[in-house]
């Protein structure tokens, strides 16, 4: 049997630089904290609201005083803001980023007949178009980081989809038509990026979370039976926790996933499988 000599380093991200969009709260904040716990020495987060970014930086810095943690507020639904954000990241990191977690997103729920075009457009712009523009513009920074580390090192992109893009969920009064379409789109786009960018030493994968208590999801959770009610419907008997996001994101960004590319990993306790049964 071949001896595994690098096991101690498989799940570490020591001295790496990470960028997390939508990193001031919810799943993005969980991911950001997990990357720091795994050893990232530099972390940059962004969201639209500067005060939310500042609060998150204070919280993360208190937990990880040795790390360099920055916030660059930006509205990534606008191309000009994506360009400004990437330029600022370039300057702050010396042009090298090891990990990009594209988490920024929005949802919109409304009946089909009254579902506004501006709501659909807002969700698609932030959840799909901005992710594409962000990855496209970050490629040079990701390439440089991998090249500088040498060997078989590769930079990582993790996009955040949803089980809503895998199975049919929100319809009726709270129909999330644009959200479901956007998450299906970003996950399929990630597969295309995986093929395009792997030869350039960048691996691309997606996570597809189910229900996690968060500001964006809490309203829908409340209308759908609450945390306890939805937990009972899950094969594992509960909803997602922060550790579930952290473990999967750290895995995908670590050497343990050095041959994982183009994967879509549901993080929902298997609920999407139970939901699809006839």
UniProtKB/TrEMBL annotation:
Residues annotated as transmembrane: none
UniProtKB keywords: NADP, Oxidoreductase
Pfam families: adh_short_C2
SUPFAM superfamilies in alphabetical order: NAD(P)-binding Rossmann-fold domains
GO molecular function terms noted in the UniProt entry: oxidoreductase activity
Family: Belongs to the short-chain dehydrogenases/reductases (SDR) family.
Name the record gives this protein: NAD(P)-binding protein
The organism of origin for this protein: Morchella conica CCBAS932
Higher taxonomy: Eukaryota, Fungi, Dikarya, Ascomycota, Pezizomycotina
């Amino acid at each position: 049997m071949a001896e595994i000599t690098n096991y101690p380093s498989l799940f570490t991200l020591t001295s790496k630089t990470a960028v997390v969009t939508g990193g001031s709260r919810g799943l993005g904040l969980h991911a950001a904290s997990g990357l720091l716990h795994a050893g990232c020495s530099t972390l940059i987060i962004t969201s639209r609201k500067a005060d939310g970014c500042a609060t998150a930086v204070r919280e993360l810095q208190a937990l990880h005083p040795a790390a360099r943690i920055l916030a660059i507020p930006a509205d990534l639904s606008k191309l000009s803001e994506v360009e400004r954000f990437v330029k600022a990241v370039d300057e702050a990191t010396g042009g090298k980023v090891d990990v990009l977690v594209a988490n920024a997103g929005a949802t919109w729920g409304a009946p089909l007949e009254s579902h506004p075009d501006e709501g659909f457009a807002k969700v698609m712009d932030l959840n799909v178009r901005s992710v594409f523009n962000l990855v496209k513009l970050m490629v040079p920074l990701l390439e440089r980081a991998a090249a500088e580390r040498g060997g078989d090192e590769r930079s990582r992109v993790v996009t955040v989809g949803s089980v809503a893009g895998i199975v049919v969920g929100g319809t009726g009064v709270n129909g999330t038509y644009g959200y479901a379409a956007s998450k299906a789109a970003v996950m399929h786009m990630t597969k295309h990026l995986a093929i395009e960018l792997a030869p350039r030493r960048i691996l691309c994968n997606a996570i597809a979370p189910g229900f996690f208590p968060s500001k964006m999801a809490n309203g829908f959770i409340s209308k759908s039976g609450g945390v306890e009610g939805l937990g009972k419907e899950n094969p594992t008997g509960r909803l997602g926790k922060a550790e579930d996001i952290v473990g999967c994101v750290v895995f995908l960004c670590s050497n343990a996933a050095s041959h994982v590319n183009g994967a879509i990993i549901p993080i929902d306790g298997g609920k999407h499988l139970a939901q699809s049964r006839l």
